[in-house]
Amino acid sequence: MNPEPEKTMARFTEPVRPVDDLEELLIDAEVDDEQVPPIPPVVVRPWLLLLGLVLVALNLRPALSSMAPLLSQVSDSLGLSAAQAGLLTTLPVLCLGLFAPLAPVLARRFGTERVVLGILLTLGGGIALRSSLGDVGLFAGSILAGASIGVIGVLLPGIIKRDFAGHAGTMTGVYTMALCLGAALAAGATVPLSHAMGNSWALGLGFWALPALIAAIFWLPQTGKRQGAHKVAYRVRGLLRDPLAWQVTLYMGLQSSLSYIVFGWLPSILMGRGLTATQAGLVMSGSVIVQLITALTAPWLATRGKDQRLAIVLVMSMTLAGLFGCLYAPLDGLWGWAIVLGLGQGGAFSLALTLIVMRSRDAHVAANLSGMAQGIGYTVASMGPLAVGVVHEVTGGWSALGWIFGVIGVAAIVAGLGAGRMRYVNVQSERL
């Protein structure tokens, strides 16, 4: 029972924070459902912490985006079927959702900074493992890399909130830039690297273990910080029974499914249309780079309307247009369609994170809704790349993928129309 019912009810009637604090609320929503009292942090060398954060964030996408340009070569070398290749692109995404709940548990036990260091090493080990031991190492390493990314992705926003509380919005932008840059670099550089290393796909993929180790070296000074702080725990009830929470979760998962189809299969699709592996990787890299524009601007614009439904329809329509253009339109306009795709997907992802905050009355609810949306959502998202592999194997081509794009995209719009309404999830939040 709640020992302070008046305070509990007050949390449901207090005004929502202004829109200008959206980024700060978003960071609160991605930490565990236990809130730390505002103790002013003492950062002796903030530039070193900032450098460490950027380097860590740069490593959260290469393991996902480096495989796609080499997927055909890897499949031919190891004799993988299209369905097995689809599973290979699915496993890391599935692990993002399955292993994310471990992050707060590990942080409470060992300290956030030490966990980040250890997981960077497991990330590097997973990337190296998938480049050795044949198909067994390939799948095992992909699982280990995906699990590592899932854990670190939960912990970094909490560090930003704690040590850069006065610049949360700016640091969130820097964090997003680093994510996009890491994905784009790996997509564009993996094939040239493999050619430079004797046309070895294993060395091209394994190269990305090196940036993870470099990031670990620069992060090492952060592990000397004093760990631990008193925390107050809250329980949120009724989230799984709330329709709005499921609409937010489904929108997160469905739009992410299209994103990871791009990460896993877009270069193979473009190579099937006649591009070389290098050209296909560069197109994907360019599409990911332009995501930064709408990732930063779409939430700002969407929160200035009466709700987010129009913004969701717009970004999802751009995403679908870009996907269909890359799949069916003449190749002389390919770069234009890739840019449209990137603008749509950057806005779709950032709006998914924004909805988690705006549909929650307080940070405790937002934290739990974030866990539900990411845990279940990424599990849903992992089915998209698998479906592409299965359909490609059955049909022997790429043309039928338009049905997958259309069904997922329309379903995301339907879920987004529900999630984009200016309402709150109906739950009970009580202090333990």
From TrEMBL:
Signal peptide range: none
Keywords on record: Membrane, Transmembrane, Transmembrane helix
Entry keyword ATP-binding: no
Lineage of the organism: Bacteria, Pseudomonadati, Pseudomonadota, Gammaproteobacteria, Pseudomonadales
GO cellular component terms, semicolon-separated: membrane
Keyword presence, Protease: no
Transmembrane segments: 47-64, 84-103, 115-133, 139-160, 172-195, 201-221, 244-266, 278-298, 310-331, 337-358, 365-388, 400-419
Gene Ontology molecular function: any one: transmembrane transporter activity
UniProt cross-references to Gene3D superfamilies, sorted A to Z: MFS general substrate transporter like domains
Source organism (scientific name): Pseudomonas saxonica
Stretches assigned to coiled coil: none
SUPFAM superfamilies attached to this UniProt entry: MFS general substrate transporter
Name of this chain's protein: CynX/NimT family MFS transporter
